[in-house]
Amino acid sequence: MYLHPVFKNGLQKKTRKSSRELAAHLQTLLTSLEDIVFEIDGNQTFKNVWVSDEAVLFIPKDQIIGKKVADVMGPQSLMFTEPIDTVIKTGEVHEITYKHLDKAINKWYKLRIKPVVKASDLSNYVLVLSIQDITQQRLAELVLQETKERFESNNELLDVSQKLSQTAGWEFSLLTAKVFWTQQAYLLFDVNDNFEPTSINCLSFFPEQERQLLKEHNERAIYHKIPYDLELKIITATGINKWVRAIGVPVIKNDEVIMLRGALMDITLKKENELALIKAKDLAESASKAKSDFLSIMSHEIRTPLNGIIGIANLLKLNHTHDQKEYIHDLIFSADHLLQLINDVLDFAKVENNKLELQLREVNLFQLVKDIKKQFIPSILRKDIQLKNFIDDNIPEKIIADPIRLGQILNNLI
């Protein structure tokens, strides 16, 4: 086909113009991107750079083109050259995430290496390296990761503290009707981790009386915003009886209860000790009452014949010989002394309560010692021994004392 030179020149000019316009349009598109785009060949030599603001480049653009990646990146070039070699060998896209080469700058980037033209001649191999600023995304990920790690750490600490204190945590959402247990709750009720707690099956661990009590307090917490703290009995999945301290607190939002949250503390040992103490106390009180009743009955039984002895002794006092006078006196003294002791036994409750009061009056100490000594004459004669008494000259004959208590002391000493 023949073209007139005029038309031929015009067509060539139009083609060159179209190529320039296309290149300019492409340049405009590339520079409008927020990413930094590099073109390199298979020898890792920079062929072109596209960036909307050259100020973000760590070295000027004209010092990059024509140089190798290793020369431009310096000591840290391996971080880039090795992935580029991998892409050239495999022909597959590769991405890496890295922090700004200047450690003082807290910025993060994603490098995407993509083969565009694959050729056996590395000079004709074309790769595109696009660098995207992902600082905000990366920082958000780091914050999320740190929060997750802190949350997991807190959960571990919570599990440890609950295990040490034998305390389980729980939540019941009124919005979703879902029940949440901490790990210790599964151990408390002797169920495996596959057990799914609900508002219904949770109550099945409580006996009927405790179940109704817990329902009432839960309703009060929901409808009247009143927390509770109860001691309840439970029966675990394996049939073991335990005591728990159940605490429930309403969670309020916009003046409405949206959740109940609380704890279950295993107080079985404490409760069993309390019940054992109460039982021991009841037994001790019962034994004490039985002892008091026995002493009271025996004291009355002894008093009856003793009153007969005292009556006969007083009759003898009215009619006796001179030789019998001292014997009758000793008999009446001993009988009166014994009667007073029996009266004290009847007042045993005062002794146990430390409320016993001394009956103080004037006492002839010399006569009291003499009378006490006479009570032991039968024992002295039977054992063929002597009993002598000495009263210090500085002790007065008459003193203020409780004659019965003082007589008990002297009897016990002798």
What report would you give on this structure?
With 414 residues, this protein is of the alpha+beta class. The protein is built from twelve helices and twelve strands. The chain has helices at 5-31, 69-73, 78-90, 135-165, 183-188, 208-224, 268-318, 325-346, 348-352, 365-375, 377-383, 403-413; strands at residues 36-41, 46-50, 94-99, 108-117, 126-133, 167-173, 179-181, 228-235, 241-253, 256-266, 361-364, 398-401. The strands form three sheets. Strands 2-1-5-4-3 form a five-stranded antiparallel sheet, with helices on both faces. Helix 7 runs antiparallel to helix 8 (325-346). The protein is rod-shaped. The model has no long low-confidence stretch (mean pLDDT 82).
